[in-house]
Design brief:
alpha+beta, Thiol Ester Dehydrase, Chain A, elongated
C-alpha cells in the first residue's frame, strides 16, 4: 500500500520548469564561489593563467553552475530559500538529500548567461529497513548557456521520510 505516492504526487512525474539568469554570471560570482569553497586554483582568478591552459578567460569551478543558484531571478520563499524546490505535496515528512550525479561538458565562463531546466524523471515509494515509508524523487537539471550549449547535467535524488510512524 502506497502511503506517500498518491495520484497527486505521481502527477509531478514529467513536470519541468526553466529559469534563465537575468545577466551574465560575471567574474565576481566565480571568484566568490571559489573563495567560499576554499578553492584557490588560479584558473578561477587569473586570466593569464587560464589562457595558458587554453581558456579565453577565468572559468568557474565545476560545481558552480549546479550549486550556486546564479541563474535564479525570483524572491526568497517562505523559508528564505531562493533556489528551486518542487514542493511535493507530502505531509509529516522530513526532506533529505539522497545524492547527486554530475556530468560536465565545458567550464562556465564569466560571459555565460545560464538557463537551468529542471524535470522530475521518476518518483518511487519504498520502505526503510525499519519499515518507515519513504518517497524518492528523482530529477534532472540541465544547464545551458545563452547559445543553448549544454554546460552540465545534475541528476538529483531527494528523499521524503515519514516522521513518527
Amino acid at each position: 500500500m502506497n502511503r506517500l505516492l498518491t495520484d497527486e504526487v505521481r502527477s509531478f512525474i514529467g513536470r519541468q520548469i526553466s529559469y534563465t539568469a537575468p545577466e551574465e554570471i560575471g567574474r565576481a560570482s566565480i571568484r566568490y564561489f571559489a573563495l567560499a569553497t576554499g578553492n584557490d586554483n588560479p584558473l578561477y582568478f587569473d586570466d593569464k593563467y587560464a589562457r595558458e591552459y587554453g581558456y579565453v578567460s577565468v572559468v568557474a569551478p565545476p560545481t558552480f553552475v549546479c550549486e550556486s543558484n546564479q541563474y535564479m531571478n525570483r524572491r526568497r520563499d517562505e523559508m528564505g530559500y531562493i533556489g528551486h524546490h518542487w514542493k511535493i505535496p507530502v505531509e509529516g515528512c522530513r526532506e533529505l538529500r539522497g545524492g547527486h550525479e554530475y556530468e560536465f561538458f565545458r567550464p562556465v565562463l564569466p560571459t555565460d548567461r545560464i538557463t537551468a531546466t529542471w524535470r522530475i524523471t521518476d518518483i518511487q515509494e519504498r520502505n526503510s529497513a525499519g519499515g518507515t515509508p519513504m518517497l524518492f524523487v528523482y530529477s534532472e537539471a540541465t544547464y545551458t548557456d545563452q547559445a543553448n550549449e549544454k554546460l552540465a547535467v545534475n541528476r538529483e535524488t531527494v528523499i521524503y521520510q515519514l516522521i513518527g510512524d
